[in-house]
Design goal:
- The protein contains 28 helices and 41 strands.
- It is an alpha+beta fold.
- The strands form ten sheets. The protein has an 18-stranded mixed beta sheet that branches.
- The longest helix has 31 residues, at 995-1025.
């Protein structure tokens, strides 16, 4: 099957004479009016849009045009492809409020477009069976339905001509010069030069992220703008020993700055699952708590849900509001300009301040504060930085009052100074204008009130009050494209040497539902670097950036990411998983191209390689592989991911994600293995010589106890030099002392006896992790380094929801130093700040940085890190509680053979201590549920039960209740305590908060369930017996009784029965019939039977709704519909799927 790898330049011109049928009109009217309770002008009309599928993967959607059979789209699209396909399929659909109707399709053979010449044709549309679709011309005569398109295919490499070095083409924000970028790994570190790591002609110097952020907020005098997935007001940015004892929390700091006149604006994602106020929400992001904290202050905090737009179907709007998030993490503020850089503005006012921005993966919330050594226990003790911030999101039922490891957190962040910081501010402005309440829109204009901030002149002009008065900006700041695309050199930093300045480009994942100011026309959107998808303007430049940078990489790639899954269209199964981002495919194809390039250059026949190699183990094969296996064009890819996604490893959602991550890795390894074999290198090279996956872990030694004289209390200390009060035996000092006293004599110093663990109850995950004194380090980074030259840092994961453009909103920067670039593939790697940061980061992971780390493209470096990682993994799962020998880096615990097959390591198929398969299990959870569950997990954020150094820091424990709930790991509302039959904690609207009303609602549910059960039996029974008319027509039949007497009789009978039932319920609190309470003639009244009755009643109510909708849409009964389906299941499923709205959720 041909591989399309490159860019499709597609122009969708128009369609003519699209078909219309009575069915399309009727179904459209019914969906709009009957199902959705609305009757727009479009009811029954055709509102066409066009889709383009490459193989079976949807890669393009146009906007829809209302009410026409002859749409003129005239849209340009740039479609990146890495797909195997024989054909391209064009499909025209009719947009609707619920679902979309099929209007026709056409097929384009790939062979017609890969010759390098433009392709331009009119296509006749057909139905699914290949029959022509017919419309009507202006005279009413039938004519073929047709569509006009143009396509130009540009293979990989051919599209690079004329590009500026380091620039990602055709994206919203241009490449900006004259910046300074500071890169951070983890929230805090010891600032200063790093011995042994050279960069830019000197020692690489580190900074501490949250300390720098704290200082920047303190220094801000004009504005502080924050976007966040989660912002916790009790977060303390400074906790080191040097911090003041009364260092304020984030909330206190922002309130104080706002009270001093600083314009503090916040956009915090609104988790819709907690809007009832009865629980903390599925993701426990503190959004309601944060909003309430700032309610009566000068801080303006806006909770913004991930809303859908007018062009979305009803299902898509529900989906976006409940499943997808605003995931950007930025802080934008003013900062003092160095005194020698102060300049005078046009009004002779000095520019004494400039814009500063923080961008990356760190949320300003609980659990993120961590060090390079990632302690597990010691820092949770009294006086330690995690005493009031014990966070654990992966242990089921974690109890913070008992010993247990915290969840270590590894992340990457960046600080940007210069013109690119203004682009981060523009992103905030666009979001504020779109998402803030109208009464708060004017607060952005405060940036114009301060003439001492150095801003790009074009932006200052369009944002000025003078422009608003003239009407150029109507009601709010209109960020026109000339503002975005222009570059003011006066804003470039002059206090950075020219060779050390950074070139920075901003990338986003966002759409017109969440950002204002996008061009309204499809032509304007294309010119602005945006795309159109069914009427929505989309900025998916993060995905575009990853693709371009991978394709242009010369020597190596290093990635850290919270997730790594995608390119499902190339998997060997589950290709319909709708995780179609191209990042994994691009990496695999880049490696394959490097392998094949060597074969093309050598031109040598490898007859020896054609002979079958003797059987040998993977270990032997890799040991014998010579360095020459990558000679000529070396290329290596290193990927660091978490051992498992945050959440309970045994849960269906985590297992499903692990399963699809395994499918992603196997797809990559199989392609690399095939390229190795094609190059004649099988037996000499292994797929893991080119691509290796790692994770991070921490294991701590048992506490060291100094044995005392008789009668004295033992002194417990800890190894590791963390500098905090130790938490011996996981925090139980008394237990550690008792263990030490019971230990047999044997010298001055001895290990705390291992039999202490044997005395504990190891039946829980928490106890097992505590006894083994180990836990994974959660990799939350979103980082890619290319050739020690270019770095990408931001909030976007390698998954569909982060890269799609219409799901989560994300933000990243791409940056490089113009004085430190890679001249040629064979030249030395750059030695600038990117290389220095990479070495410092690797130094954190492997402790002692080996000399081979100077060149990550060398296979010797790959094999050395793989060996160190394997030794660390062996120590992590070994019986001894000892620190890992080489830092934290561990090879990901799966094997890969020479053919690219992937599986779990022998004797280590499950996550240590916690359970759950390392390679995951394909879950029965729907993909829409899994999309939510990818970020849904039990969170524990609590003050330690042992000590609390700050009474004002709120303690929170969010964990699953000890009973089944309607959504796994969800804490039920307090008023649903499990005492009611059938109570699974479901009351999202809080209707039962009043105890009196709760009893009545329970009674009403039971009564409606009984009516539904009788209705279902009646509907099925009458259809089975052939009783006519059909149940939905029975009400119109003439039964020989006038309507008025019949209605009166019904009111009398039902009124009497309902009155008696209500009176009996008020007196007894139970259900009954006339004067019998409870009504139980068969003697079956029990709690177990009550639960069964409720379950069957709920099922019947859902079934009745289904019966009603089915009768409304298809005019068939349930049994008839089932029979039709079973007569040809494959066709009926295909037909149904192609006639519904294509809703991508994963």
């Amino acid at each position: 099957m041909p591989l399309l790898h490159g860019v499709l330049q597609v122009e969708v011109h128009r369609a003519t004479d699209l078909p219309t049928t009575a069915r399309i009109q009727a179904v459209g009217f019914m969906k709009r009016y009957v199902c959705c309770g609305m009757l727009p002008d479009l009811a029954g009309s055709v509102d066409p849009y066009l889709c383009l599928d490459v193989g079976a993967t949807r890669r393009l959607r146009t906007r829809f045009i209302q009410g026409t059979h002859n749409p003129d789209w005239n849209e340009k699209h740039e479609v990146y492809v890495a797909d195997e396909a024989d054909t391209l399929k064009v499909e025209v659909k009719d947009a609707d409020v619920v679902g979309a109707d099929f209007l026709g399709q056409a097929v384009i053979p790939v062979a017609e477009i890969i010759g390098g010449k433009p392709w331009d044709k009119w296509l006749d549309l057909t139905d699914l069976q290949g029959k022509p679709m017919m419309g009507k011309d202006h005279t009413g005569d039938p004519v073929p339905s047709r569509v006009h398109m143009s396509i130009l295919f540009q293979p990989v490499g051919s599209e690079d001509a004329g590009l500026k070095a380091g620039e990602v083409p055709r994206v919203y924000f241009p490449l900006r010069g004259g910046n300074r970028v500071t890169l951070y790994h983890d929230a805090v570190c010891t600032p200063g030069p790093v011995p042994g790591v050279e960069a830019s002609g000197g020692l690489y110097s580190e900074s501490s992220c949250w300390d720098d952020l704290y200082a920047a907020i303190n220094d801000a005098q004009r504005f502080i703008w924050i976007t966040g997935w989660s912002v916790w007001t009790s977060t303390q940015l400074q906790r080191t020993p040097a911090a003041a004892a009364d260092s304020p929390t984030l909330g206190e700091l922002l309130v104080a700055k706002a009270a001093a006149g600083v314009n503090v604006l916040m956009l915090v994602w609104d988790d819709a699952t907690n809007n009832s106020g009865l629980h903390s929400g599925v993701m426990a992001t503190h959004d309601q708590e944060t909003h309430a904290y700032f309610k009566d202050t000068e801080v303006t905090c806006v909770l913004c849900p991930r809303q859908g737009g007018d062009e979305d179907s009803y299902l898509q709007k529900m989906q976006r509001g409940n499943m997808f998030t605003h995931h950007q993490k930025t802080v934008i503020l003013d900062t003092p300009m160095p005194s020698d850089q102060v300049t005078a503005g046009p009004d002779s006012q000095a520019y004494t301040k400039r814009v500063l921005a923080f961008v990356g993966g760190l949320d300003l919330t609980n659990g993120r504060y961590d060090f390079h050594h990632h302690p597990l226990f010691d820092t949770c003790a009294e006086g330690g930085p995690h005493a009031a911030d014990l966070y654990q999101g992966c242990i089921d039922g974690f109890d913070c009052t008992k010993p247990g490891p915290r969840e270590p957190w590894h992340d990457i962040h960046a600080k940007v100074e210069g013109p690119a910081a203004m682009d981060v501010a523009i992103n905030f402005m666009e979001r504020w204008i779109k998402q803030a309440p109208k009464l708060d829109l004017h607060k952005l204009s405060s940036i114009d009130d301060h003439g001492d901030i150095l801003l790009p002149e074009v932006l200052r002009m369009f944002a000025s009050k003078r422009a608003q008065v003239k009407g150029r900006v109507k009601g709010h700041i209109d960020l026109r494209m000339e503002v975005i695309k222009s570059h003011d050199q006066e804003v470039e930093l002059r206090d950075v040497p020219p060779g050390e300045r950074w070139e920075v480009q901003l990338f986003r994942t966002i759409d017109s539902d969440s950002a204002a100011g996008f061009p309204g026309s499809s032509e304007g959107a294309f010119e602005a670097g945006l795309s159109v998808g069914k009427g929505k303007i989309v900025d998916a430049s993060i995905h575009r950036a990853y693709i371009n940078l991978i394709r242009r990489a010369k020597r190596y790639l290093y990635l850290e990411n919270q997730y790594f899954l995608g390119s499902s269209h190339l998997w060997d199964s589950d290709q319909d998983s709708n995780c179609i981002n191209l990042v994994p495919a691009e990496i695999a194809l880049k490696i394959c191209a490097k392998i094949k390039a060597r074969r093309r250059r050598s031109g040598r026949a490898r007859a020896a390689a054609a002979a079958p190699a003797p059987p040998q183990t993977l270990k032997c094969a890799r040991r014998r592989a010579p360095r020459a296996a990558q000679a000529g064009e070396p290329f290596c890819v290193y990927v660091v991911i978490p051992m498992y996604p945050e959440g309970i490893p045994t849960s269906g959602s985590v297992q499903a994600i692990l399963h699809y991550e395994t499918k992603t890795r196997q797809m990559m390894y199989k392609r690399i293995a095939a390229a190795i074999e094609e190059a004649g290198l099988k037996g000499q090279a292994h797929p893991q010589d080119y691509l290796q996956f790692f994770c991070l872990g921490k294991r701590e030694a048992e506490p060291v106890c100094e044995l005392p004289a008789d009668g004295e209390v033992p002194q417990v200390t800890a190894e590791g030099g963390d500098g905090w009060v130790p938490m011996a035996n996981g925090g139980d000092l008394a237990a550690a002392a008792a263990d030490a006293a019971a230990a047999p004599p044997g010298g001055d110093v001895a290990r705390a006896p291992s039999r202490a663990a044997s005395r504990r109850d190891l039946t829980t995950c928490q106890a097992r992790a505590t006894a083994a004194r180990r836990f994974m380090i959660y990799v939350h980074s979103k980082l890619m380094i290319v050739d020690d030259e270019y770095v990408v840092v931001g909030s976007a994961n390698i998954n569909q929801r982060s890269l799609d453009g219409k799901r989560d909103s994300e933000i990243c920067i791409g940056a490089f130093q113009s004085g430190h670039t890679l001249g040629s593939a064979g030249g030395p790697l750059p030695r600038g700040q990117v290389a220095g940061f990479r070495k410092v980061l690797w130094g954190e992971h492997v402790k002692d940085l080996p000399a081979e780390a100077d060149d990550p493209s060398d296979v010797r470096c790959m094999r050395l890190l793989s060996r160190l990682g394997a030794e660390n993994w062996a120590a992590y799962v070994g019986p001894d509680n000892e620190p890992l020998p080489h830092g934290h880096l561990m090879t990901y615990p799966t094997w890969c053979d020479a053919d690219g097959n992937v599986g779990p390591l022998p004797d280590c198929e499950e996550v240590p201590d916690l359970g759950g398969k390392i390679t995951g299990t394909k879950s029965m959870i729907s993909r829409s549920t899994m999309a939510l569950a990818a970020k849904s997990f039990t969170r524990v954020s609590a003050r330690s039960g042992r000590v609390a150094s700050r009474a004002r820091v709120a303690s929170r424990v969010v964990c699953a209740a000890g009973r089944p709930t309607w959504l796994p790991n969800l804490s039920p509302p307090k008023h649903l305590d499990g005492s009611l039959a059938g109570d699974f904690g479901f009351d999202p609207l809080g209707l039962g908060a009043d105890p009196a009303r709760l009893k009545w609602y329970a009674e009403a549910e039971k009564t409606n369930g009984r009516w539904a059960m009788m209705a279902v039996v009646g509907i099925l029974g009458t259809e089975l017996l052939g009783v006519q008319p059909a149940w939905w027509e029975a009400g119109a039949k003439d039964y020989g009784v006038p309507m008025a007497p019949l209605t009166a009789m019904e009111f009398l009978i039902m009124g009497f029965l309902e009155t008696k039932r209500y009176q009996g319920f008020k007196e007894t609190g139970t259900s009954g019939f006339i004067n019998q309470f409870p009504f139980d003639p068969a003697g079956m009244n029990s709690k177990d039977m009550a639960v069964k009755e409720l379950k069957n009643g709920r099922l019947a109510m859902v079934a009745f709704i289904g019966f009603a909708v089915q009768a409304l849409v298809s005019r068939t009964g349930p049994l008839e519909g089932l029979g039709k389906h079973l007569s040809n299941p494959g066709y009926n499923i295909t037909y149904t799927l192609t006639h519904l709205q294509d809703v991508n959720t994963y």
